[in-house]
Structure formats: structure tokens, C-alpha cells
Automatic annotation (TrEMBL):
Name the UniProt record assigns to this protein: Myosin motor domain-containing protein
Example GO BP: actin filament organization
Location of region: Actin-binding: 518-540
Similarity comment: family membership: Belongs to the TRAFAC class myosin-kinesin ATPase superfamily. Myosin family. Plant myosin class XI subfamily.
Organism of this sequence: Brassica campestris (Field mustard)
Domain Myosin motor: 40-637
Coiled-coil parts of chain: 782-953
GO molecular function: actin filament binding; ATP binding; calmodulin binding; microfilament motor activity
Amino acid sequence: MKNGKRRSNVAWEASHDVMSREVVTKASAVYPKDTEAPASGVDDMTRLAYLHEPGVLQNLHSRYDINEIYTYTGSILIAVNPFRRLPHLYSSHMMAQYKGAALGELSPHPFAVADAAYSRFGKFVEIQFDERGRISGAAIRTYLLERSRVCQLSDPERNYHCFYMLCAAPKEDVQRYKLGEPKTYHYLNQSKCLEVDSINDAEEYHATRRAMDVVGISTEEQDAIFSVVAAILHLGNVEFAKGAETDSSVPKDEKSLFHLKTAAELLSCDEKALEDSLCKRIMVTRDETITKTLDPEAATLSRDALAKVMYSRLFDWLVDKINSSIGQDPDSKYLIGVLDIYGFESFKTNSFEQFCINLTNEKLQQHFNQHVFKMEQEEYKKEEINWSYIEFVDNQDILDLIEKKPGGIIALLDEACMFPRSTHETFAQKLYQTFKNHNRFTKPKLARSDFTICHYAGDVTYQTELFLDKNKDYVIAEHQALLNSSSCSFVASLFPPTSDDSNKSKFSSIGTRFKQQLVSLLEILNTTEPHYIRCIKPNNLLKPGIFENENILQQLRCGGVMEAIRISCAGYPTRKHFDEFLNRFGILAPEVLVKNSDDPAACKKLLEKVGLEGYQIGKTKVFLRAGQMADLDTRRTEVLGRSASIIQRKVRSYLAKKSFILLRNSAKQIQSVCRGYLARNVYEGMRREAAALKIQRDLRMFLARKDYTELCSAAVSVQAGMRGMVARNELCFKRQTKAAIVIQTWCRGYLARLHYRKLKKATITTQCAWRSKVARGELRKLKMAARETGALQEAKNKLEKQVEELTWRLQLEKRIRTDLEEAKKQESAKAQSSLEELELRCKETEALLIKEREAAKKVTEIAPIIKEVPVVDQELMEKITNENEKLKGLVSSLEMKIDETEKKLQETTKISEDRLKQALDAESKLVKLKTAMQRLEEKIIDMEAEKNIMRQHQQAISSTPVRTTLGHPPTTPFKEAEFTTPVAGNAEKSAAERQIMDADALIDCVKDNIGFSNGKPVAAFTIYKCLLHWKCFESEKTNVFDRLIQMIGSAIENEDDNSHLAYWLTSTSALLFLLQKSLKTGGSGAAQSKKPPTATSLFGRMAMAPRTSKGGMLRSGRSFGKDSPATHWQSIIDGLNSLLVTLKENHVIHQKYRISYDDIAHDLCPVISSMRALMTEESNDADSDSFLLDDDSSIPFSIDDISSSMQEKDFVGIKPAEELLENPAFVFLH
């Protein structure tokens, strides 16, 4: 490319600026020039004597200066844009002249190409004909619409004309659509070219309106069309800034809000819904719907995607409307078509659009090359010459690189799009690995994700940052739903509702669909006789009379003109008719012209005489190889020069002969002496110089080899030492870190278990002492009451209540340990049998008491009769005394049984606690086993993914052909694959293991009580910051949440410690608040509902646990006296006060420091109000003096309650755990 530009510049400057500047160059770098070519150039460049780039450029420039903008290259028409109107070229008279004329008979013109194109051909705009040659229909075919131009422009190009026409519309239309100048819109002011001198946008607007009326588009539809176009312009001016939340965005200012509101009005949709569709995404999971906010950059991409899809849908609707209005003939026999497609593109930043455009040009260039080669073949066949040895170079290797299955770039791009975790960097690495040995594919230096393809028109470097997003063929669901729900029927018709089957269809990509359209395009081209028009832009200023050489030369190369010339040069680029050839080169063999009257024979003999080879003699022309024309011109110049020199020689020889003879003799002697002396001196100097050079060469070689050997040895030693030291330091640090983590884990676990055992032992000891004291006090009261006859009935009642209390306690213990009965059925059976025996004894005791009560009633009934008798019955008194003694004995026996029952209960409680401890240990081991199983499953998944990657890599390498260079044996590609793949696998394993180790360190730290910081639970905020840092909310699946739930469930299994449960209640409530605020789970009904949500199983247990664990203490503290209900009610108040103090210490209750009875009854637990009524009834009822709490007395916590209880919502002032601060993996917590 560079050499071609240099040669063309030299030839151009040598031919045009020779009078104004002096050019110094090598003779081999100068192209020959045809001095006999006309000053106005030739209309067919195949007639040039010298067919090379400077000659083509010179011919185009000569014709452009005289406004001859059309030039042939064979059947290819080259059109140079004059940037001015030339009406005389397209008049009716001109059209009539070219009608029926053969190609090449008149001057180059599109009319000549169009007249020759009447055969089968079609693309884009096609006119259909029936068998009689009459027009029967027409159609417009759209292919490869450049949607990216809507949002991105390159200076100095304009956007689509409809935007500028709408801005130049009448005042009432501009006010209706709230439009302004084009320079105020982002989609238009990216380029400085806002107006074109030859285009009147206002007139074009009216012409477009009239054209819409002609094709049958109603006024309502026209207004809706321009409303959509205006909405696209307003959308482009909506800018976004960071929102209040993390990774969120909002309209930047009032100007953006105005354009957003205007766009919503023009599209007849809700403004808030339009903003949400641009700034949010809804992700539907298996369990719920999650609303995810977008950052400003992602919101901008969403805005551009909406603008492009709206323009594309509108464009397709217009094409379908025009086709239906024109009418198509499906049975047409012939058609004429015109294909207008963009050319090769190479910018500073080349993305997926340029990749597809250049693929199209590669395809068309291959077809163009084949067509040119075919024309060459037809010319050779027509002249009946041998052409079989002409070499044809194809660009099929580039096409295979891009679209070959399964190893092409498009196939790899589709594969990357089907994997949700793929990024543009992994896609680029896959390309580097697959095409590292491809001669058309290179990796730019200092680039991590770019790649370069060597196209036929030059090297192009592509940036892969947006390849994956632009390749996905889908419409964003929020945009589809928004515009489908528009109140404007036209807008809603552009976005019809999608069926469920289409959503479940297989993956489809833009690249694959693009490639299929190219296949259909080439199928049509292969069935036609194409005629090419190459449009050339002479300058980037879009002004007439300016001819930029390098710009035009690059367009000729990209347009394939130079390739067509190269194909012509590969055969016979110079073709001369017989008479023209003989007239020009007859002086090389004059005798041939005299003896032969046959032109072909004369031409053949002339060429044989001059000694040329490789030429061909056709029927009407002489075909010369490249360079032979220049050789003939050189010989012709030599013949003419020799003729002139002969005349000059005769005259000059006569004058100089005399002088020469006189001087020759004397000069011979002088010359012989001088030459001998000089020759000897020269020889001696040369010999000494050669010896000195040899000595210097050997000495410098020895010194250089010595320095290099010493430097190389020193460098290798230093590198080996440094690398070894770095590796040893890293290994030592990893071992120390791992050992420290293990020691910390075991030490913290041991301290936690030791503290738990001591606390549990102290609690059990305190409970036993307190219960023993209460029992002894009750026993003393019973003994004192048993001494009196009048207190017998009260003692019986108290004993009955005590038995009921014992029965209630046994039932409570049984209900608490129902979860452990399945694991200890045999032991529970024994305890159950003993309990049944106690119940039988209690029932027998109740029966005896009932009988004694009846006997006492009978005695009381008989007593009045005895009192009426004045005589004292001593027998009756003795009988009563005996019965009293029996009752006392029975009471003492019942007291002994009660003591024995309490001892058995204590033993059973101790056994149950030991078994509960064993069950908790087993459960903790089960949790660890589950965690280990999850790690194994993740490792297995990683190994399977790595295995698939290795298999694909092996298949890709096995399909690569093996080459040999310089006689060496071919290298095996599998060795490199075996060396590189495990390294990548180890890197992936180390990353996965580090993530698992970090999750383990987090769980080990927060499973203990790590306290509060500024009144906020440290564990909740530590977990939340770690989840944000690990991007767990962006992953489709992660097991960190499951492990955290298991850890929290295991931590609250110990329901005897109210402080422990209150701590976890605060931590989990705060964590739930943060997750709800971050994820913003969908559904407006939840926000509008005023009812508190039902507590989940986890939080229900946590809210219910303090009441359950304190129930025994509250009930055990009751007074058994009938006449003191306030005493045991006061004990309940004291127990609740102690519980509230515990909750206050763990920051569960923030509103009040001191809580009264009314606050407890009406605010904290509504169940207590019903308890008060029960206590009142118990004080009035002698038979019932006990009460039980409702099983479901938990307090449901709503998100609003938790949100109002938290004073601050940010992380300012919260100090993380010390254990995690020492871990280098949690540096982000600082």
C-alpha cells in the first residue's frame, strides 16, 4: 500500500509539476508514460498503453477537468462525483441516443449500462416485465440496513435525510413536534456537515409529503410517521446521571426531562414507563421478579437501542407499504434491478457494523473478481487465443476466516453469545487462540481485545467491546411492552406482541442472519449478467473542481478497480488493432511491410524479428504481456535515435578524423606510462585496504562475541535468582496465610464452644437451685397447712394444681423436643412409659382425692345433726382423727412421690440435653458435609467446562493444516495445546477456590456474635458489602445465599439463649432491609398494602423463640396461692422486662427506653390483653388458676418497621470485624 502510494505520487508529480519543482527518484521507481495519449484521456482505460495506477489516475483526472465524469474499464463504469448539477447528461435526447446502442459505441454513460442490463437481474429496486416485455410490477428489497447511523456519525457525513427535512418543515409542523435547529440534537450534531448546498431540506419535506400521498399513505399515518422520527431526535437528547442508589441512573437535568416527556407524548405512552424502560431491567427468576437498575452508561446504550429499533421498524413498514401500493408480479419472466450498497469502511474505531459491511464487500469483491476474470476469458475466446495459464488470485481465505463453520469468526461470536458469562475479552482470547497461525489474522500490539483482518483493500483493526451486544438479535422486552401498549395504533402496530413460542425459540444472531442475506444476494447475482458502476468521491470537502489523488486511489483500490487492472495485467493488458500496431511499430522491421500484405502475418513476423515472446495474435488485435509495450516503445525510440545519430556521425567523423590521427600517436606513449604508474598505485592501495578490513572484521567479531556471551550469562543468572526469590516469597506468604486462617478457625471455635458450655452449665445450675428453693418453700407451706383440719381442702386443691403443673411441664418438654424423638425412639419409649406410670398414679391420686372430698361433704352434711345432739360422740371424733391422720400420711406419700418425680424429671432433662447436644453436633457435621458437597459439585462443573474447552481447542487445532518451513519437520500443534490449556485451567481453579475460601472466611467470622458498631449489626453490613463486591446480585446462580441461610438456621437452633436469638433477629432484619432496598423486588401491590407481611419460617422462629424459652421461667415463677394473682402477674412483668432489656442491648427495640404495662399489652404483644382477662377469670374461679400463652404469639416485622427503626442506611462509621480486616482478600472493607 505504501509503495503504491509513493509510486503514484512520483508519477503524478513528474507529469504535472515538473515545471514547478524538481523531483529526484530512482529510475526503477518511475512508471512509464504514454506520450502519445490524448490530453483529454481515453474513455475506456483498457485502451491505455500502460495500465498501472498512475496511468489510471492521470486518465481520470484529465477527464474530470473537462467534466467527463464517466469512464469505462472494460464493462465497469467509473463515476466521479462532480458535486455540481450537469443536467445535459440526463436529458430525454441523451436517453434516446443511448437506446439500442451497443456498450462502448458511445461515450461512457449509465444509460449505456442500463440498456445493456435488460436481461434477469434483481436487487433492491427491481422492475418486473412479462413475456411481451411490458412492465407488470415493481418491488423494493431491503438488505443490510445500517441502523447504527441513527446514533453514530463520522465527520463530515450527514445522518438520514428525514431528520433534516423534518427540522426544515413548516412552522406549524415544527411547533407540533417541538423541534429546533439540527445542531441542537445529539444524533445530528456529531458531524459538522448539517447542510448540503445542492439539497433544499424544506422542498424535500414537501416532496416527501406529496410522494406519500401518491403511494397511498393517509394523512394520519404521515403524522404518526413524522411523530416517530421526531421522537427519535428527542430521545437522542436525553442524558443520564448517577442516581441516589448504587449503579442507578436518572435523567441528568431539566432539559433531559423535557425531551423525555416530549418523546413520550409523541409516542403516546406513559412518561414514567418510558423512563423505567431506559433506566431499569426486569429479570424474571424461578421464584420472583427482580428489578435491576442501570448505570448511566448502560442507560445510554438502552436509549440508543430503542432509537435504532424504532427507526428500523419504521423503515420496514414504509418499504412494505410502498411495495403493496406499487404491486408485485410473482409470475414475471424478466426484471431490471439496481443494487446500491455501501463500500469498504475503515475508521479509527471499527465495531460490529464495519465488520459486517466489510464482509459484504469481500463477498461482492470475490464476485466482482470472478466477473472480471470471466470478461477476460470471453475476450480471449472471442479472439481465439490461449489463456489457460493465466493465474487467478481469490480471496476465499478471508471469507473462510470470517464465515466458515464451525471455526469462523461469526461462528465463534455466536458461540460466545450463547454463554451468559462470556465477555468480549474471552471472545477475543478465543480468536487469538484459534487464528494465531492464520496469515490474514493478527493481534495488534498493546491490545487486549482488538484484532486485525487483512482485507483485500487493506488492514482493518476491529474493537470487540460491543460485538456480543450488537450480535444478539432481540428487542429489549421493556421497549417492546412499552411501545406495544401505546395509545397510538400506528406505534403499537410497529411492535406487535410476541408469542410465547418466539420467546422460546433457538438463539438467533445478527451475524448469522447477515450472512444468510449475503448468500441470497449472491445467489441472485450469480443468475444474472451484472454491470458495475463504481462511484468515486473526488474530495472530502464535497466541493467541485478538487481532485485528491490519494483519496481517489484508495477508493479505486477499495472498489476493486485496481484488482480488475491486476487481473488484466495477469493476462494481456495491452491490446492493439493490427493497423494501429503496424503504423506505430513498422519502423522496427520495414521489410515486413513491403513483403506482406496480410496484417496478422505482418504483425507476427515483426514481433518475431524483435525477439518478443509470450504474445498472442488474435483475429483483430495483438495481445501483449505486461511490459512488452514499453519494450517495443524503447526499441522504436532506439531505431529513431540510431537514424539521427548516423547522420550526425558522418559529419562529425570527417571533421574529427584529422585531429584524431595527429594526436593519437603522441597520446599513446603518454597514456601507457601514466596508466601503468596509476595502475600500480591503485593495486597496492587496494591490497592494503583489503588486509586492514579483514583484520578489523576478525577483531570486532571476537570482541562482540565475548561481550555478548558475558552479558547473556549474567542476565540469565540474575533472572533465575530474582524469579526464584519471588516464587519462594509468594509460596511462604501463602503458607503463612493458610496456617494463620486454620489456627484462627480452630481457636475461635474452641473459645465459642467453651463459652457456650460454661453458660449452659451455669444456666442449668441456676434453674435447678431456683426450682429447688421454690419447691421447698411450697413444701413448708403444705406441711403447715396440713396441720390444720380446715386447710385440708386447700392442700388437696394445691396438690391437684401441682400435679396439673407437673403434667403441663412434661407436655411442654415433650413438645419442645419433638424434633429429636425420631432419632431417639428407643430412649424416648422408656421415658414415655415412666411418664405414663406417673400419669396413672396421678389419676389414682385424683380418684382418691375425689372420694375423700365426697366423704368430707358427707361429714359436713352430718355435722349439723351431730351438733343438735348435746352428747359428744367420741367414736366419731376418733374416726375423724384417724381419717385426718390417713390424709396426712397420704399427703406425705404424695410429697415423696413428687420429689421422686422431680428427680426423674431432672435426670430425663439431663439425658435430653445430652442428646440435644449430640443432635446439634450431628447437624453441624451435616452442614459441613453439605458445604463440602457443594464445593465438590462446583469443582466438577469447572472441570467439565475446562474439559469441553480443551476438547474444542483440540478439535480446532486438529483442523489446522500442518506446514513445513525451510525443510524442518512439521511441529505438532497438540503439544502447545497441552502446555497452554492447563495453565488457563489452573488460573480458573485458583479463582474459584479463592472465591470459596473467601466465602468460608466470611461465614466463619459472622457465625459468632461479632457485636454492633454505632448501634448497627456488624455482621449484616459485612455480608452485604461482600455480596456487592463479589457481584452476587448480577450472577444468575450462586450458592453463597444458600450457605448463609444454612449458617443462620444453624446459629439460632439454640433457643435457650435470648441474647443470642435477639442478636440474630437484629442482624437478619438489617440484612433483609438492605437486600430489599438493593434488589427492589417487583410488584406495586406490596408497596400499597398496609397489612404487615406474614413472618417467614426463619424470622418467625426468631420472633417466637424468646417467648418459648422464657415460658418456663415465667410459669415456674408463679405463686400457687389463690389469693395473690398480682404476685405471679408481677413475676410475668419482671420476666418481660428482663426480655426487653435483652432486646434493647441487641438493638432490636429503638423507640423507647422504658416500656409500661399498657405499651406491652397494646403495642408489643396483643396476646397479653387476652391474658389479663384470663387472669381476672382465674382470680374469681377456684377450680382454674392457670393460663397458657397462644402458640402463635410472634410479632411480625415488616420492612417499614425495620426501615423506621434504623437511624442510618449507609456504611459510614461501621467498623468491620477484625478477623476480616487482617485477611488480604477483604481489603475492600476498609
